[in-house]
């Protein structure tokens, strides 16, 4: 066990966990931020996507020991009122079916749009292809990312 | 450190679980738009609220609380059920809050999610729930205004007296109205007067989902609970010995227990259990027949040619028809096992205390969760409560309660509240799959190309009846023989979205494409001719409505410009399942000599479309699901163990692999039927038939990408 100070959503957290504990489980089991989802655990599906210093990252394979002073943002911290342009677009397009993958989708989209504010559809698809949606909401996700780019 | 926060787990507990019947979910997104307006908490709304029936409670402030009994797994029932109640109530949708009801078999019938059956089952009940409350509110208003009830109307949460222009909000009337006796019979609206039904009402859980609120079973937390994970045996094997020393040595693991052929690791958080489970040294030995995919291929050949089969349907004289045929077409189609793989792996919370049990989690069948637990523990079902969380997908896997009884058994053994989590690998190797099936179809054609005989034998591994003997083309052919053979295996199977038809439809619709080609007929006209016969002189029992089937075929042909553009290679498919009708056309265009799938057009008849957004989701989602699994899905076995254990080897369809999908609906005003499943079955056939048209390659097995006929085809997907 080791003690880690983590900077998450602008707050400081102190956790006692094993070095190899993935950030995903630190968030879910030790801090109680359960918006970040577990699905595959091997960086294949994107349900666990968070931002590390603004970049989208799979938290399921990111050991807590590698985080250091990096700034972590989770779905809970993307905006204070749920009014980030990507979240608003997701609501406007009514994107979800079961919704389980959508927090990860939103985090991937938000990081992508920060770097590429005026993307083409092809660029959107290339960016979003890393996130699986088992319900098949891909058409809506495309639409929502494109709308979010306009809302900015 | 400026801002050191130690999380208080209780903060998010408040959101996750409530004392008074169900999860609170009706988050007020509109509250963000008008921060000055005070938004009442759910507790404030429920305080002094008056109950009208199992579905409906109205507060004196005018907030309408609607309970949605059925588990929500993405089919959007949690939005569409309340829409139906609110419609007949003439409620102001902005004042509606929706709560997921707990299991309550006294209040609700059929509190389950499966078979696309919720809407057809509850349509009238929900309408009556809203309409009777509206009737009582009008009666209370009539007394209050001292006018005749017949002079009153309702709109947007108010009772209106047109003559005087007076209006009274529902909130002011609920105290009086809830004391009145509900009428036995109540008039329902004419569908043409619907204001909420038929409009794209947004999912009521959007805000909770898109801000990461705890909603799903895996998000549930209880102070003092222990986590558990289980190592289950390969199919057909039993434990010979367990060495758990290395697992126990992992920090955070509090116990390792063996029960019923399972080894459970228990601890205070999830990650140590994932590590510990990998360190278990378990030796297994055969406990019956241990099978591999190789054995199944041999079995299929044996059973297809075997003498014994269960006859499911026999019309006319099949032997004579085939003997007299000008042409006989024979073809075989095969599908593999599939995993359901919902994005949220199986999990459940159980707390056994003496003869009382609390269950919380994602289940499609809360009643089964309760009954199976009652049976396991030998206690009465009424001692068990079941709180239904949102489900991160289900696809039929959560119709089972194996993960519930595991949690309950562990809770009893550990004498502690247990949160059981399946890893993705557990989910994929834990059984209850879509069964593998092989079909042999045979058609007899006369000299004019009419189908005078039709034979189908289905052979499945734990598939039960792998045919749907009274579905099309039965009823349209004079001489029919439909048989099923089931092989019992240790590999467990279960309903998988559109059970049996998820594959049968592809096989049958591909085969009918082959028959139409042999008969030198256009595939659409070929089906219409058969249906004309089924209408004019039906043979035996038909479980489908011929006119509705014709309706979707014609609509799909029209909307896809069927046969109008020689550069577009089209594949047709139509299927009736779960009370709804869906026809699909896949459009392929050749670019640089390779096929490019551009679009799938779908025509659906599900009667009244309750929520067009939800309906489009189900149709598109069904098509994406159908196409993804037809293209890529494959679960194979070696010595009783699946070879694919996670999404690196078990391939699911991704965004860049889906074509444009055009969705159309037949408008006929018929009471609504379900849509969770019916759009999936036709897709594989439409895509395979288009691939054949474009390349001459007939794909008779799934997944397509593993077929040798497909090996040199580079199917591209392009969206507009």
Give structural attributes.
heterodimer; A: 152 residues; alpha+beta; Ubiquitin-like (UB roll); DNA polymerase, domain 1; 5-stranded mixed β-sheet; 5 helices; 5 strands; 36% helix; B: 720 residues; Aldehyde Oxidoreductase, domain 4; 3 domains; 7-stranded mixed β-sheet; 25% strand; disordered N terminus
Helicity level of chain B = 25-40%
Low-confidence runs of at least 5 consecutive residues of chain B: 1-36
Low-confidence stretches of chain A: none
Largest inter-chain contact set:
A-B, 69 and 79 residues
Residue-averaged pLDDT of chain B, rounded? 94
Task: Label the structural class of chain A.
Answer: alpha+beta
Number of domains of chain B: 3
- State the CATH topology of the largest domain in chain B: Aldehyde Oxidoreductase, domain 4
CATH-derived topology of the largest domain in chain A: Ubiquitin-like (UB roll)
Assigned CATH architecture of the largest domain in chain A: Roll
Please provide the count of β strands of chain B.
Answer: 30
What would you note in describing this structure?
The complex is a heterodimer of chains A (about 150) and B (about 725). Helix content of chain A is about 35%, strand content about 15%. With about 150 residues, chain A is an alpha+beta fold. Chain A has a five-stranded mixed β-sheet, with helices on both faces. In chain A, helix 2 (about 85-95) crosses helix 5 (about 140-150) and helix 4 crosses helix 5 (about 140-150). Chain A is globular, with a radius of gyration of 15 Å. By secondary structure, chain B is of the alpha+beta class. Chain B has three domains: about 10-210, Aldehyde oxidase/xanthine dehydrogenase, molybdopterin binding domain (Aldehyde Oxidoreductase, domain 4), CATH 3.30.365; about 215-285 and about 345-420, Aldehyde oxidase/xanthine dehydrogenase, molybdopterin binding domain (Aldehyde Oxidoreductase, domain 4, 2-Layer Sandwich); about 310-325 and about 435-715, Aldehyde Oxidoreductase, domain 4, CATH 3.30.365. The two termini of chain B are about 50 Å apart. The relative contact order of chain B is 0.11. Chains A and B meet through strand 2, helix 1, helix 2, helix 3 and helix 4 of A and strand 1, helix 1, helix 7, helix 9 and helix 18 of B.
């Amino acid at each position: 066990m080791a003690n880690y100070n983590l900077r998450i959503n602008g707050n400081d957290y102190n956790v006692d966990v094993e070095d190899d504990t993935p950030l995903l489980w630190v968030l879910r089991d030790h801090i109680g931020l359960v918006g970040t989802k577990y699905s595959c655990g091997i960086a294949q599906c994107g349900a666990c996507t968070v931002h590390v210093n603004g970049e989208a990252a799979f938290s399921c394979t990111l050991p807590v020991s590698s985080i250091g002073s990096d700034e972590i943002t989770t779905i809970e911290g993307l905006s204070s009122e749920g009014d980030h342009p990507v979240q608003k677009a997701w609501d406007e397009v009514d994107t979800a079916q079961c919704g389980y993958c959508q927090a990860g989708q939103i985090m991937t989209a938000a990081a992508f749009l920060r770097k590429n504010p005026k993307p083409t559809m092809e660029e959107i698809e290339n960016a979003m292809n890393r996130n699986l949606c088992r319900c098949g909401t891909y058409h809506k996700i495309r639409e929502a990312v494109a709308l979010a780019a306009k809302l900015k | 450190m400026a801002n050191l926060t130690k999380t208080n787990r209780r903060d998010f507990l408040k959101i996750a679980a409530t004392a008074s019947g169900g999860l609170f979910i009706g988050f007020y997104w509109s509250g963000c738009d008008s921060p000055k307006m005070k938004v009442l908490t759910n507790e404030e709304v429920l305080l002094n609220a008056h109950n009208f029936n199992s579905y409906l409670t109205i507060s004196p402030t005018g907030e309408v609380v609607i309970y949605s009994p059925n588990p929500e797994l993405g089919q959007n029932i949690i939005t569409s059920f309340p829409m139906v109640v609110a419609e007949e109530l003439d409620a102001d949708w902005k004042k509606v809050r929706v709560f997921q009801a707990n299991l309550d078999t006294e209040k609700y019938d059929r509190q389950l999610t499966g078979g696309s059956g919720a809407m057809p089952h509850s349509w009238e009940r929900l309408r009556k729930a809203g309409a009777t409350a509206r009737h009582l509110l009008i009666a209370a208003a009539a007394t209050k205004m001292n006018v005749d009830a017949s002079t009153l109307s309702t709109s947007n949460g108010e009772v209106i007296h047109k003559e005087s222009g007076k209006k009274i909000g529902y909130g002011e009337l609920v105290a009086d109205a809830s004391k009145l006796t509900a009428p036995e019979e109540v008039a329902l609206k004419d569908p043409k007067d619907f204001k909420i039904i038929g409009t794209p009402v947004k999912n009521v859980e959007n805000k909770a989902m898109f801000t990461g609120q705890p909603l799903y079973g895996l998000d549930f937390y209880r102070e003092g609970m222990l986590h558990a994970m289980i190592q289950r045996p390969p199919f057909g094997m039993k434990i010979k010995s367990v060495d758990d020393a290395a697992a126990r040595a992992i920090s955070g693991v509090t116990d390792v227990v063996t029960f019923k052929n399972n080894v459970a690791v228990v601890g205070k958080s999830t990650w140590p259990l994932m590590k510990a489970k990998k360190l278990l040294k378990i030796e297994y030995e055969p406990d019956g027949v241990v099978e591999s995919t190789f054995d199944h291929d041999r079995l299929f050949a044996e059973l297809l040619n075997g003498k014994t089969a269960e006859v499911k349907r026999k019309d006319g004289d099949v032997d004579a028809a085939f003997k007299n045929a000008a042409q006989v077409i024979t073809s075989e189609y095969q599908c593999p096992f599939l995993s359901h793989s919902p994005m949220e792996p199986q999990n459940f919370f159980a707390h056994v205390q003496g003869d009382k049990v609390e269950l919380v989690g994602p289940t499609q069948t809360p009643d089964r969760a309760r009954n199976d637990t009652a049976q396991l523990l030998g206690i009465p079902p009424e001692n068990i409560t079941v709180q239904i969380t949102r489900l991160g997908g289900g696809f039929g896997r959560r119709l089972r309660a194996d993960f519930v009884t595991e949690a309950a058994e562990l809770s009893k053994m550990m004498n502690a509240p247990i949160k059981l989590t399946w890893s993705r690998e557990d989910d994929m190797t834990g059984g209850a799959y879509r069964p593998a099936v092989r079909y042999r179809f045979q058609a007899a054609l006369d000299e004019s190309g009419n189908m005078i005989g039709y034979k189908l034998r289905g052979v499945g591994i734990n598939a039960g009846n792998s045919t749907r003997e009274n579905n099309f083309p039965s009823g349209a052919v004079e001489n029919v023989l439909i048989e099923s053979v089931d092989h019992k295996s240790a590999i467990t199977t279960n309903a998988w979205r559109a059970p049996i038809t998820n594959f049968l439809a592809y096989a049958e619709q591909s085969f009918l494409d082959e028959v139409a080609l042999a008969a030198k007929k256009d595939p659409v006209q070929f089906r219409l001719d058969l249906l004309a016969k089924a209408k004019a002189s039906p043979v035996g029992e038909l479980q489908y409505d011929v006119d509705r089937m014709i309706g979707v075929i014609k609509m799909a042909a029209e909307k896809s410009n069927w046969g109008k553009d020689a550069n577009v290679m089209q594949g047709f498919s139509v299927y009736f399942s779960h009370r709804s009708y869906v026809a699909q056309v896949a459009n392929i265009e050749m670019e640089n000599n390779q096929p490019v799938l551009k679009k799938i057009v779908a025509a659906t008849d599900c009667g009244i479309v309750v929520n067009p957004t939800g309906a489009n989701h189900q149709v598109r989602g069904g098509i994406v699901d159908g196409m993804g699994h037809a293209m890529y899905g494959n679960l194979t076995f070696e010595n009783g163990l699946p070879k694919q254990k996670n999404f690196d080897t078990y391939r699911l369809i991704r965004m860049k692999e889906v074509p444009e999908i055009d969705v159309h609906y037949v408008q006929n005003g018929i009471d609504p039927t379900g849509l969770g499943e019916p759009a999936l079955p036709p897709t594989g056939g439409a895509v395979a038939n288009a691939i054949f048209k474009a390349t001459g390659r007939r794909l008779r097995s799934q997944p397509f990408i593993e077929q040798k006929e497909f090996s040199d085809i580079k199917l591209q997907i392009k969206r507009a």
